[in-house]
Amino acid sequence: FIGAGPSNLSSILNLKDKSGILLIEKGKNILERPKNEVIYGFGGAGAFSDFKLSYGYSVGGSLLDHTDEKHFDEYVGKALHQYQAFTNKPLIWSEPSIHDIGGLDMITQKVIHVGTAEGYNILCNIYDYLKKCNIPMMYDTEVVNISRIDDNTLVVVTADGQEILTENIVIGTGQKDKLATQYFNHLEAKYNKFQLGIRAEIPNVDNRFADILAANYDFKYFKRYETENFNIRIRTFCCNSGNAHVATEKANGLISYNGHAIGDGQNNGLVNFGVICEMAPKNDLFTQETFLAQIAALNKAMTQNPYDFKEDFKQVFIGIPEVDTCITDFLTRFNKDCKLSDGHFYTPEYKNTSPSYDYHGTFNELEPGIYLNGDIFCTRGIITSSACGIKTADILDKKLTRPKKTEGAVLKLRK
Prior knowledge:
Layout: H1 6-14, E1 23-24, E2 52-55, H2 69-84, E3 105-107, E4 110-113, H3 116-132, E5 137-138, E6 143-148, E7 154-158, E8 163-166, E9 169-171, H4 179-183, E10 194-203, H5 210-215, E11 220-226, E12 230-242, E13 244-251, E14 254-261, E15 270-281, H6 288-301, E16 307-308, H7 321-337, E17 344-351, E18 365-367, E19 370-372, H8 382-400
Parallel strand pairs: 1-5, 9-19
Antiparallel strand pairs: 2-4, 3-11, 6-7, 7-8, 10-15, 10-17, 11-12, 12-15, 13-14, 16-17, 18-19
Helix pairs in contact: 1-8, 2-8
């Protein structure tokens, strides 16, 4: 298992036979992981986030493209039960409602706001459990290459030169890691949408968000736009309220902003949330390379953050004029219901859209013995990523308990 995020941890927790497992993680274990490292380490990118569990058919990625609603519900239920086993805090879904904002549509989903502090406790308990199960775990170890030396043997190569032989690899390295796309560069990878936006940080000392948060803690408003070069869907996501903080993420040489809320009962009077622009190009001019170059350009230009918007919101957002016009309209509509113009705004917040591949009828086994898991596959968020991991565990259980034909075979020693 490459990556110690929610999907791979859930796979390991739910495998019936836990022998023969090796977990490799680029970052540190949960006890040694610094809290300013919000991407790598045990627990994945969600370890020091708000640890929200968001449940709905219209949120959390595209897992429903690979299963039906019945099994989706089943695996989400198992994922919730899994986390409940590692905390005394009752994990109970909220019942969402609608709060209208003129000119914007709203998606409702069930949410459990676990909070950063309790989420960290859950991950510590999971870490202790895996140690008691005597599961080997390698930390500060980056996998730099995967190769295949025959039909059954795969080789995992680490940055320090180790070569590890195995029959099955589960890649759960998150949406911003390049390992999977590097290995599968011989396959056609389609990037149909690109997600780039801002992180808003707004004062809430006057309780201006009270009605919105009461309706849905992780509120999701959206509006569709059409420009010359893009079909656009702008939406809010990943709201954090109370003791809320903006976090800086650094991955692959690029900087992005995210948010979390420390669930310790304190209140710093702030709400932060993302305003992401999901762009579907109408032509081939905007590519994955263009997307990454735009993020790099924003990193270079926005040397000082946060910065303030004026009342009319007419300021550069992501540097693509026709898209910035749409974001301006979206924020102006939101501002009429709930004042945003006295807030701070960080740019960019970006999400890598996982490339779509042809899985030839399998769930997530892209080539024999190689599985993509969680956000690098198709999910977004802790609960759907965990649900994906449990489904992967079921697939591996069936595969690994299947009788093997060993007569006449040469047995290989494995490191």
